[in-house]
Design a protein that fits this description.
Layout lengths: L1 H17 L9 H37 L7 H13 L1 H5 L3 H23 L5 H35 L11
Length: 167
């Protein structure tokens, strides 16, 4: 509850500063506390994203490689879109988490159709649940990573980080 109060205080101070009132300037201690607040939340969302991401890849592996009726081609087609964002996820790039949200919507759409069909299998429901959790966790991780980077830069007194490749 205390962190929420501090975050609301920060929003109030930023609004006042935008309006020209510098008497309520945010001190470094508040920025450090906010940086820690977002770092902890990002870490939790990142762990949840990576755990469900790994579980979805393992599910595809189990369905397509380990079973006799599976095929390597189907496995490659299912996993390639997910593997495209993996380097960015491992480097903690917020845009990769956002792209993962876009990519996972394809899986969500496909598995909603599978779950609603008469040929429903429990693995379809598992994949649907994993895609929902990945989408939510990746969206939160992306947002909290951006906030963490912003507040960490403000606490250090440095410039606010921009997109890669900009000065």
């Amino acid at each position: 509850m205390e962190k929420t109060k501090q975050y609301n205080l920060l929003a109030y101070k930023q609004r006042n500063r935008r309006d020209g009132d510098d008497s309520t300037a945010i001190d470094r201690r508040t920025m450090n506390e906010l940086s820690d607040y977002f770092r902890i939340r990002f870490t939790l969302a990142r762990r949840c994203t990576l755990a469900c991401y790994s579980a979805l890849l393992a599910l595809f592996l189990g369905l397509n490689i380990l079973r006799p009726e599976g095929s390597l081609t189907t496995w490659a087609m299912q996993t390639l879109p997910l593997l495209l964002v993996l380097p960015g996820l491992l480097d903690n790039r917020h845009r990769s988490y956002s792209w993962l949200c876009f990519v996972i919507l394809i899986y969500f759409t496909a598995y909603v159709v599978e779950v609603m069909s008469p040929l429903f299998v429990w693995t379809d429901a598992l994949a649907l649940a994993l895609s929902v959790v990945i989408f939510t966790a990746a969206m939160l991780a992306s947002r909290w990573l951006q906030h963490w980077q912003y507040h960490a830069a403000q606490a250090d007194g440095g410039p606010v980080p921009g997109p890669p490749g900009t000065s």
